[in-house]
Design goal:
heterodimer; A: 484 residues; alpha+beta; Beta-Lactamase; Helix Hairpins; Heat Shock Protein 90; 3 domains; five-stranded mixed β-sheet; 57% helix; rod-shaped; B: 226 residues; alpha/beta; Rossmann fold; Arc Repressor Mutant, subunit A; 2 domains; five-stranded parallel β-sheet; four-stranded antiparallel β-sheet; 9 helices; 23% strand
Chain lengths: 484, 226
């Protein structure tokens, strides 16, 4: 499996480097072609400018110089001089005198003067085979010369024609050199670029592969592997860090799940045994009435079991930060009123007096269902644990952005053995017949809403619980809660 | 009335079938979302009971699909989750209801009855006078009488008695009472409801007569109409 990922890493590196190299090479080639075109045009433009400039000078000289023995020599020398001013390719490239020719014909197209390489007659023949527009340079292929000449024609007033030509050899050499250099540099850069891209993407992908291997090594039994920390703060290092954080969270969640299922199994076994026992008794009962009695008791046991399961899971989920909430805005006063109205007969039955202290209407953003159950739990506690003749007080107060719910009584207080673990599951007094889930649930609901709960025994005797909850659900705390 | 039952667990499905038949409903059974969709297209359905956990998809999307296909009947959602999904809340406001497992069959039947009635506005909903044997309730005047004796009831006791009267002859569970009379979905660990019933009973029962309000142990209460 790893060899597969390795191969995949190599092909991915290959693909990345090949792709980027091809794009780079294509781009460079297009840029070079444009540049080449521009340079070639520029060279020709310069040559043509030189040719037209020189031919007018030469014509001028030819016209002004009287015909005679001196004429040939003067024009010859001027032509010689002109050839030394060739705009491009001076220096080591060939013999400039071979690069330029000067040719004059009379009105009958007879060769009058020839300055240039080789035989003037060959050039004359070539000229006669081409069409010229005066003062417009054209390309002229000449027999025996592999490289054509660029030639400009000028017609003097006496009808004689003057031709100045320059070999394109130098121009072509310049362009040839340009192409050669480009090719060499191009190949070098492309190869180097490919190598660099390949190596760096390979290195990057190898780090990604490390993450892949870690992920592959993780199964339900091994959540301990972590991606090796990579230095720096680039995207891959961030990926590694994120991955590790995610693994931490998963490990925590799985750990909590184990704890949860263990404690759930523990919570359910004894009540299940009780239900089973009642059903067995029902089967063995001598008459229908007795049997029905046991079945009814078993049903009641099942209801308690279901309630226990619900609460137990809620407490565990809240501890794991995964309790689902459906927040709405409701009046806490109204909720407390209907809850006291529901429980008052029960409390009175036990000769317990309930006193509610409230002044202003308090609106709370919370899960109303959870709060109903929270209050029911507190009331159930009062009914179950307070001795006859006790008093319970409930006080509602708004303190800035917090809602304070205080419940206290003049009973015996929390038993000393419950002590510090008041809100832990299974924390209950020796005399209690409950499952020790009530206050754990209350605590879970309060913390899930971002609040705090403090329980203590008052100096004057009696237990007291103080719950502080943010009145408004902060978007942040809720999302943090969901993410947590 | 044809009730579509979508439940993949065979035992539960059979149990629902029997209970529905005993209460003169006509159950249409489906064990998967695909079967349910087919059944909802082909048969005239007056109500549906849908389990959220199905082998071939979740119940919420099934309900959404069935409604998109023109199912107008109300849906009772059965959820194994104790804290109910937000999406269920969304459906609930759309006229449907939910029940968490394990449920008392009487509660399921009562909720189903409510749902089906809600869509047809049953005459008993609009009745202003309720009568069970010689117990008479005038809802407009907020007055209850046993024979010719006016009963002295608190507002909540009146609401409790009204709920019992509306369900006369049928069993109601404690959680139904808490839900319908107090608007609370809680499971108290003490006998709060029993105390209220006890007080109400003291006000409506007459010594020496057959009791009107009967306790069925382990289940709930029945207001005897015979």
């Amino acid at each position: 499996m790893f060899s597969m990922t390795n191969k995949a890493g190599v092909t991915a590196a290959w693909r990345i480097s090949l792709g980027s190299t091809i794009v780079f090479a294509l781009g460079t080639t297009i840029a070079f072609l444009l540049l080449h075109h521009y340079v070639a045009q520029e060279i020709q433009r310069r040559s043509d400018a030189w040719l037209t400039g020189e031919v007018s000078v030469l014509t001028d000289v030819a016209e002004k110089t009287p015909r005679g023995a001196l004429y040939d020599r003067i024009v010859d020398e001027i032509a010689e001089l002109a050839t030394k001013e060739v705009p491009v390719g001076r220096g080591p490239v060939g013999d400039p005198s071979r690069a330029v020719f000067f040719l004059e014909t009379d009105a009958h197209s007879e060769l009058k003067l020839w300055v240039g390489p080789g035989d003037g007659a060959i050039f004359l023949r070539a000229i006669q085979q081409s069409r010229f527009t005066p003062e417009h340079p054209v390309e002229l292929p000449v027999a025996q010369f592999p490289i054509p000449y660029r030639v400009v024609q000028y017609i003097a007033d006496d009808g004689s024609r003057i031709y100045l030509g320059m070999s394109e050899r130098n121009d072509r050499q310049v362009l040839d050199r340009l192409r050669t250099w480009f090719l060499v540099i191009f190949i070098a850069i492309v190869l180097l670029g490919f190598a660099i891209t390949f190596v760096s993407s390979r290195r990057l992908l190898r780090r990604v592969q490390g993450i892949t291997e870690t992920a592959a090594a993780i199964d339900e039994n091994n959540l301990k592997s972590r991606v090796p920390a990579t230095p720096g703060s680039d995207e891959v290092a961030q990926l590694a860090a994120t991955m590790n954080r995610m693994l931490d969270r998963i490990a925590t969640a799985v750990g909590q799940l184990h704890t949860m299922s263990d404690s759930l199994a523990h919570d359910l076994r004894s009540p299940l045994t009780a239900v089973r026992g009642k059903l067995e008794l029902a089967l063995m009962a001598g008459n229908r009435e007795q049997s029905e009695e046991h079945v009814a008791a078993a049903l009641e046991g099942l209801d308690r079991l279901s309630h226990l399961l619900t609460t137990s899971l809620d407490v565990a989920e809240a501890k794991a930060g995964a309790l689902r909430m459906h927040r709405t805005r409701f009046s806490l006063n109204a909720l407390v009123r209907s809850m006291t109205e529901l429980y008052e007969p029960s409390l009175l039955e036990h000769h317990i007096q309930l006193h509610v202290e409230e002044n202003a209407e308090i609106l709370l953003d919370a899960d109303a269902g959870l709060f109903q159950r929270l209050l029911a739990n507190l009331m159930d506690n009062a009914v179950r644990h307070l001795p006859s003749g006790s008093n319970v007080w409930i006080a509602l107060r708004q303190e800035q952005e917090f809602v304070c719910l205080r419940v206290w009584d003049d009973g015996p207080g929390f038993p000393p053995e419950v002590g510090l673990c008041l809100f832990e599951k299974h924390a209950k007094g020796n005399a209690s017949h409950g499952y020790g889930l009530g206050l754990a649930f209350v605590h879970a609901v309060v913390t899930a809403h971002g609040g705090q709960i403090v329980g203590s025994n008052q100096e004057a005797g009696g237990a007291q619980l103080t719950i502080m909850i943010p009145a408004r659900a902060e978007r942040l705390s809720e999302s943090a809660f969901l993410a947590g | 009335m044809r009730i579509l039952v979508v439940e993949d667990d065979t035992t539960n499905r059979e149990f629902l079938r029997r209970s529905l038949e005993e209460n003169s409903y006509e159950p249409v059974l489906a064990s998967s979302a695909a079967e349910a969709e087919l059944a909802s297209r082909t048969g005239d359905i007056d109500g549906a009971i849908v389990d959220l956990m199905l082998p071939d998809g979740d119940g919420i999307s099934l309900i959404q699909r069935m409604k998109a296909n023109g199912l107008s009947a109300p849906v009772l959602i059965l959820s194994a989750r104790r804290s109910v999904d937000d999406r269920v809340f969304g459906l609930e406001t759309g006229g449907d209801d939910y029940l968490t497992k394990p449920y008392a069959i009487t509660e399921l039947l009562a909720r189903l009855r409510n749902l089906v009635r809600r869509t047809e506005t049953h005459p008993s909903e609009t009745k202003t006078i309720l009568q069970v044997r010689d117990l008479k309730m005038d809802l407009l005047r907020r007055e209850a009488m046993r024979g010719d004796q006016v009963l002295d009831l608190t507002t909540r006791e009146f609401a409790l008695l009204e709920f019992l009267c509306r369900n006369a002859g049928r069993m109601v569970t404690r959680s139904m009472i808490l839900d319908q009379v107090w608007g609370m979905r809680i499971e108290p660990e003490t006998n709060v409801v029993d105390v209220h019933i006890y007080r109400l009973r003291n006000k409506i029962e007459r010594r020496g007569e057959q009791p009107l309000l009967k306790t069925i142990r382990g289940m709930g209460y029945v207001l005897n109409d015979k």
